[in-house]
Design a protein that fits this description.
The protein has 118 residues and is of the alpha+beta class. Helices cover 33% and strands 35% of the residues. Strands 1-2-3-4 form a four-stranded antiparallel beta sheet.
Amino acid sequence: MMMGKIELTGMHFFARHGVYEQERIEGNDFTVDFSCETDMGAASESDNLNDTVDYQVIHKIIAEEMEIPSALLEHVAGRILRRIRAEIPRLHHASVSISKMNPPLPSPTECSKVTLSY
């Protein structure tokens, strides 16, 4: 077994997540970072996509889940990880961070961020 990490960082999405009605009406910019660990031994020798994790599949799952409005970023992150775990069972570990840019707070704040992993 040869463990390795795949990461997708800085994925940008416009979505309508938030507790407050105005957040769901206006929407906001979000940044998502994802990482996973898997056995890359076969791919390191075969040079065949079938022997590794196709990160286009991961991106597609994340994009689809980001389109579904939720009150909490925790809920969005949980949905993403549950789908990835169900659709790509070969992963040994996965982590997703979702950042809401310019969250509605009393002072300027670059982002609020939630990270979940399994």
